[in-house]
């Protein structure tokens, strides 16, 4: 036997650590007094097999902290990555518009008045038809994005109706997914979305009510916090089978002590139907104070019975969905790129009238990956949690330039994530 390459010791209090395996996501708490002895056992595992510690060693083995001598964890990760990369799912992220009914300060997009036209709808439909046939696609996912995608329900409906019909006739799986601010949802619209096979919703909230409403408002909506949460409740009742994620965009200012109570006032009766996802606003710097505040908030939600989504709930198969060979982002003017997180005028391709993608500059960032480029990633204990720099970052590397860690303090970043993950798995 040998110890796993992905065992991580994380301090959780003055007297306690957690031993966490990044491959299996298994963990157990251990006193700081006994940590050194545990590490000694892991480093000398063979010598403990015959004696009274055998039961504990078997527990370590069953949970992936020690592994067979002939097991290659890195090769397993690599195989899982390529299986994910080469899957037969066509994921089209379609931006129906660059317009939005709010003007959030942190948004990466400049809200240009561009909306997907009926002419472009036909091009997208031809693209779906031709791409699926040429690439032996087994499942189609349409992921709707914006701006605020529900400002253009017409395009969503018409393209979805085509896709549903085409997939049904060709024995192709299909589902619709959407990221929305949730303010435009109504009972009639939700019924339409149910009829169009929407089964995945990500709806965003900007922290506690006062901060949220200062961020997300317009001349008609002053309390978008209440409106959005009421719409989430309505959504859970009208599409009970849907996967509904409430994404909390957090900053150093909007995770207040009363935030869980504000959310619970609306969602308590449907908390078993939704999942909370916490994401730091990208302009904010990660600090120990912010990490401590996040940990406390997550613990409160967990004790209230909410499900908290973590990147660690499953093996992380890639750093980003852009790694998938059959993923494209279609902008509302017909331009195309791999990543949607860029200015529309930087997109490198476009859709032709017959639905083909023509690249002005062929994307090469996914030709290499964390397993093919030199760098420190492959020897990092956090690899199964990270999977290296994103494709957009790799795009700007020189041909022989090595991968570099993108975190200023990777230990602080991942160890706080591990602490939060472990909280969500504790008994309530």
Automatic annotation (TrEMBL):
Keyword Transferase: no
GO-annotated molecular function: 4 iron, 4 sulfur cluster binding; catalytic activity; metal ion binding
Known cofactor(s): [4Fe-4S] cluster
Annotated keywords: 4Fe-4S, Iron, Iron-sulfur, Metal-binding, S-adenosyl-L-methionine
InterPro entries: 4Fe4S-binding_SPASM_dom (IPR023885), Aldolase_TIM (IPR013785), rSAM (IPR007197), rSAM_sf (IPR058240)
Residue ranges of every copy of the Radical SAM core domain listed in the record: 95-240
Entry-linked PANTHER family: ARYLSULFATASE REGULATORY PROTEIN, FEMO COFACTOR BIOSYNTHESIS PROTEIN NIFB-RELATED
UniProt-recorded name of the protein: Radical SAM core domain-containing protein
Organism: Segatella copri
């Amino acid at each position: 036997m040998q110890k796993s390459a992905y065992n991580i010791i994380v301090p959780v209090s003055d007297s306690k650590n957690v031993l966490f395996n990044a491959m299996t996501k298994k963990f157990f708490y251990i006193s700081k007094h006994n940590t050194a002895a545990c590490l000694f056992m892991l480093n000398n595992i063979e010598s403990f097999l015959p004696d009274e510690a055998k039961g504990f060693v078997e527990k370590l083995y069953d949970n992936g902290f020690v592994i067979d001598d002939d097991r290659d964890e890195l090769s397993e990760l690599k195989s899982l990555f390529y299986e994910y990369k080469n899957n037969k799912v066509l994921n089209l992220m379609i931006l129906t518009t660059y317009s939005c009914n709010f003007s959030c300060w942190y948004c990466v997009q400049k809200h240009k008045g561009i909306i997907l036209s009926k002419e472009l709808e036909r091009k997208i439909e031809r693209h779906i038809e031709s791409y699926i046939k040429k690439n032996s696609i087994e499942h189609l996912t349409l992921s709707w994005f914006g701006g605020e995608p529900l400002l253009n329900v017409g395009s969503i409906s018409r393209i979805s109706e085509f896709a549903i019909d085409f997939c049904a006739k060709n024995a192709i799986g299909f589902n619709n997914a959407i990221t929305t601010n949730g303010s435009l949802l109504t009972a009639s619209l939700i019924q339409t979305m149910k009829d169009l096979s929407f089964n995945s919703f990500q709806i965003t909230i900007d922290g506690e009510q006062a901060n949220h409403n200062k961020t997300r408002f317009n001349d008609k909506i002053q309390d978008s916090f209440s409106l959005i949460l009421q719409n989430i409740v309505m959504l859970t009742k009208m599409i009970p089978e849907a996967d509904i994620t409430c994404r909390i965009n957090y900053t150093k200012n909007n995770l207040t002590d009363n935030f869980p109570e504000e959310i619970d006032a609306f969602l308590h009766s449907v908390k078993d139907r939704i999942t909370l996802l916490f994401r730091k606003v990208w302009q904010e710097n990660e600090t120990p104070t912010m990490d401590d505040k996040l940990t406390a908030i997550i613990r409160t939600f967990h004790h209230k019975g909410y499900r908290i989504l973590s990147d660690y709930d499953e093996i992380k198969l890639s750093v980003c969905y852009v790694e998938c060979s059959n993923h494209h982002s279609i902008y509302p003017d017909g331009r195309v790129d791999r990543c949607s997180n860029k200015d529309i005028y930087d997109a490198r391709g476009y859709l032709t009238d017959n639905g083909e993608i023509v690249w002005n500059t062929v994307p090469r960032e996914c030709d290499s990956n964390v397993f093919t480029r030199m760098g420190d990633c492959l020897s990092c204990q956090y690899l199964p949690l990270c999977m290296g720099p994103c494709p957009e970052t790799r795009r700007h590397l020189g041909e022989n330039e090595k991968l570099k860690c993108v975190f200023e303090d990777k230990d602080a970043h991942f160890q706080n994530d591990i602490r939060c993950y472990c909280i969500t798995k504790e008994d309530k």
